[in-house]
Design a protein that fits this description.
With 428 residues, this protein is an alpha+beta fold. The chain is 39% helix and 20% strand. A hairpin with a 4-residue loop joins β5 and β6. The longest helix has 23 residues.
């Protein structure tokens, strides 16, 4: 096939020719012309290509401007709308039972949270930029006030999705709490100062209790005033969740913060099965010594003891304890640091703040090492405890420990939720 050749002439011009090879010889089929400027040469090249198309009856394989296309000259970029993304998430919502047409505002804001978490004001701008959906600030703030009435219906949809689509019988649920603070120093009956998990003790906050499946799929939540002790949130959240949604009482998994004699007693009264973290440091020395002697009778660090567990009957249920070499090294490293700090304070006759292993000897403010506490801590190195009322014939020690470790799914759900909210997003 002929092609365009450009060569320099003796006069310094550039000649444009239509050439082709035949029997290994270059044949000049058409001399288009000679020019000196870049623009003139480009015009000759275009004329040469037009001549080739006209006489060869064959189109170029990779033309500069294919048929059916337009150049960018004179065009103005207006933006991009992610219609496919919107329609895909809309179908997912409909599949789950959420009617996007019934409450389009909630649906639009939820989609935007998934794509790019931001404050309410920025979400308004992003919805217009990405999807061409326009909301006024006044409309958004008015509609947000009415979203509370959707809580029950959305929880029902979530439970139905968990059962039918995720094939979860809700025989086991996970529970934990977190705090959400507000970028303001003015509180009210709900938003008050309390123990902050965000290290914002001077700012008003709320406490949120969240229930998720074993896989971390959120099922329901309750909100409490910011100064509510997290241990007092569990039973109320569970009651509201089970009664409103007609869910059969499942096995409850929660961390040690939910553990109290009152909570354990209430769980027993309601015939609820539970797996909660145990505070081994608050356990009596006799029980700790029994655990240590049975679990690690010969030596504290032994490969054949790694992952071993025992179960002991207590007044609050079965106490399951396991040993980990990794946990032992971590605990011992932390204890060595605390002991060093304690010894330094004792030498200076100071108590320090939040320092373990230091106690007052007498009324004259003389401080000494708390040897009993040190001995107790040594016995607990590498050990973690779990309380349950589930018989070993139903769930083995290994199963109990595995179920408890699923709690990271709740923490993950909290981190996802918190990353979705800017502090300013909570201030209104």
């Amino acid at each position: 096939m002929p092609y365009i050749r450009k060569i320099k002439t003796g006069s310094g011009s550039t000649a444009v020719q239509v050439v082709y090879y035949k029997n290994r010889k270059l044949i000049v089929e058409k001399h288009i012309g000679s020019r000196k400027t870049k623009q003139e040469i480009e015009t000759l090249v275009k004329d040469g290509k037009d001549w080739i198309r006209k006489h060869s009856k064959q189109e170029e394989l990779f033309p500069e401007n294919p048929n059916g296309t337009v150049t960018a000259t004179g065009l103005k970029f207006l933006g991009v709308e992610h219609i496919f993304t919107y329609q895909l998430l809309q179908r997912v919502a409909l599949h789950c039972g959420l009617d996007s047409n019934e409450e389009s505002f909630l649906f639009d804001f939820a989609i935007m949270r998934l794509i790019e978490p931001a404050s309410k004001l920025r979400t308004i701008k992003l919805l217009e930029r990405y999807f061409g959906i326009i909301y006024s600030e006044r409309t958004v703030y008015r509609k947000i006030l009415n979203l509370g009435i959707k809580k029950q219906s959305i929880e029902e949809i979530a439970i139905k999705c968990a059962k039918e689509m995720l094939k979860d019988d809700l025989a086991l649920i996970l529970y934990d709490v977190t705090t959400l603070y507000f970028e303001t120093f003015k509180g009210d009956e709900l938003r008050v100062e309390g123990f902050s998990k965000d290290n914002k003790p001077q700012q008003p906050q709320i406490v949120v209790g969240l229930i998720v499946t074993r896989q971390g799929f959120p099922l329901g939540y309750e909100i409490f005033s910011g100064n509510t002790f997290e241990g007092k949130t569990m039973l109320k959240t569970l009651d509201n969740f089970t009664h409103k949604n007609q869910v059969k009482m499942p096995i409850i998994v929660a961390d040690a913060a939910m553990l109290s004699k009152e909570n354990i007693e209430e769980l027993r009264k309601r015939n609820l099965s539970y797996i909660v973290g145990a505070r081994l440091g608050s356990t009596s020395l006799n029980i700790i010594e029994t655990i240590h002697d049975k679990l690690l009778p010969k030596q504290w660090i032994s490969k054949n003891k790694d992952g071993q567990s025992i179960r002991i009957k207590t007044v609050t249920g079965d106490l399951v304890v396991d040993f980990s070499q990794f946990r032992y090294r971590k605990d011992k490293n932390e204890m060595d640091k605390q002991l060093l700090r304690a010894k330094q304070l004792v030498e200076k006759n100071q108590s320090g703040k939040r320092v373990k292993f230091v106690k007052r000897k007498d009324k004259n403010d003389q401080y000494i090492l708390n040897e009993a506490l040190i001995q107790k801590a040594k016995l607990l190195l590498g050990m973690k405890g779990y309380l349950t009322n589930i018989p070993e014939t139903v769930l083995s020690n290994k199963d109990i420990i595995t179920r408890y470790h699923d709690l990271w799914h709740v923490e993950q759900a909290f981190r996802m939720a918190k990353s979705d909210f800017e502090p300013s997003d909570l201030s209104s």
